Amino acid sequence: NAGVTQTPKFRVLKTGQSMTLLCAQDMNHEYMYWYRQDPGMGLRLIHYSVGEGTTAKGEVPDGYNVSRLKKQNFLLGLESAAPSQTSVYFCASSYRTGAGYTFGSGTRLTVV
Amino acid sequence: GQQLNQSPQSMFIQEGEDVSMNCTSSSIFNTWLWYKQEPGEGPVLLIALYKAGELTSNGRLTAQFGITRKDSFLNISASIPSDVGIYFCAGRSGTYKYIFGTGTRLKVLA
What we know:
- The structure holds two protein chains of two kinds.
- By secondary structure, chain A is mainly beta.
- Chain A contains no helices and eleven strands.
- In chain A, strand 4 (about 30-40) and strand 5 form a beta hairpin.
- Chain A is globular and about 35 Å long.
- By secondary structure, chain B is mostly beta strands.
- In chain B, about 0% of the residues lie in helices and about 55% in strands.
- Chain B has no helices and eleven strands.
- Chains A and B meet through strand 4, strand 5 and strand 10 of A and strand 4 and strand 5 of B.
């Protein structure tokens, strides 16, 4: 069981560049989430999805876009990267409302 | 918005000691989760709590859902070096989403 897989694991971007982070889960979970983790800030929700074809904004959505075209995949896009988006990004999934999340191992993104 | 205060922020303990940490909220929650995160990895679920007053154990870990529904506690008994990591609480108040605390960083001295 792979669980939740995130790619890439590391990435360095120049300011203004774009990129897409991929999250894939093989547990048939309905709900998927993107969080960012910054020192002293805990985990903050960027966007989430309650099913294939649906997305919604979380706590800190500005500068990010997401898509859930297939149930098993949740993509996070940065159209024009900024240094403030330097962070560790975690994807998570859950099978029902209220269930605990299964997290991926994270993507460490540095924007210079 | 809702906030979770987690304390202590960090702690250094001797191997074999017991550990206590807690999480408090400004709002009532109906579910509490406790996670552990090791360096370079994502958080891993340790314990889930669904009822006020509930006490649940997972090996040497015990967590409690506070009676007021605004707090939760995690205890680790007889700590060992592999307990090192960051412990996060997370709470939910009726939506799909959990709010996470800022974490307690635990270091165990052998």
